[in-house]
Amino acid sequence: AAAGFLLASPITANDSEAEISIGGITLKPSTDLKLLSEDLYISAEKVTVDYVFENPTDRYVETTIAFPMPGQPRGLLEVTGAFYETNQDWSGFGFSTSVDGSPVRLLQYDRAMIGDRDVTEEVIANGFPVYWADSEQGNPFASISQARLDDAIGEGLATSSDPQFEGSVVPAWEGVTYFVREQGFAPRSKVRVRHEYSPMAGGSVGGALYPQYRNIGPDSSLSDYQERYCVDDYFLAGVDRRLANASGDENTQVYMTETWLGYVLSSGANWDGPIERFRLVVDKGSTDNLVSFCMNGVKKIGPTRFEVVKTNFEPTRDLDILIVKFETYPD
Fold this sequence. Notes:
Layout: E1 12-13, E2 16-21, E3 24-27, E4 34-42, E5 47-55, E6 61-68, E7 77-79, E8 82-84, E9 96-99, E10 102-103, E11 107-114, E12 117-118, H1 120-125, H2 146-154, E13 158-159, E14 170-171, E15 174-185, E16 189-197, E17 202-204, H3 221-229, H4 233-243, E18 252-264, E19 275-283, E20 290-293, E21 299-300, E22 305-313, E23 319-330
Parallel strand pairs: 1-18, 4-19
Antiparallel strand pairs: 2-3, 2-6, 4-5, 5-16, 6-15, 7-8, 9-10, 9-16, 11-12, 11-15, 13-14, 17-18, 18-23, 19-22, 20-23, 21-22
């Protein structure tokens, strides 16, 4: 029922204290530092996040802080209107960080992950790339011998059970980038941190949102939208109105495309206590677009912008955002 191609939803993440060991990067809770505020802005073109951290203790605290980027969307990548069939990482997406207004240098760690399992060393030892794409050039299993392929399957590095790549053997891992910095916090101090970058947006050309593909059954694709993005009847009615081609021109047809954005809020719970003040602004980009995401207390603050403000916020789930765009073409 899903029209066109589907990409895994890319997800960004909150800062988190981390430790780097032989087995990879491990995010861990902090027992010293508080996250006083987080001001997050998300659109399809830009993501900014401003933090205020506090060291309430009487001692100097120095720690490793990691900002994990989303796993690379599996398959074709659509970025700013261009399609990429080769390996992509986050080095070209303008990620920058400043601390108290001054730019800081970050270390970039690229890891191969199967869920929470770090398989980077096995991947590299076998001569496979961390980042891959589902194309003849990008899939490392497309041109290897059957013996090597059997070994990769036996080690759990390759899979043929991914429904997105039916009939193909593809890597079981995703490439995940961590931007890492060492940061010191003076006693009884507050530190302001800002991240800014262009998101790697996943998407689809319509999928189960078209009326003819909707099935309210528990196993339908629409149920995934309802679970992940909190799509409701009001949102679907908006889709139907726009697809009805309000211009009345019988020689044109309205089509829709989806953009998927996300943010890992759950790592914001790694600090000592809740986020004292959290503010989220989601910009859908155009008044003609529709947007849906799971969070209560949403308030419209502009023609395309929606705001959520919370105090003593303890995130329990990650944020996924669906933006639907509509285009009219000759029939």
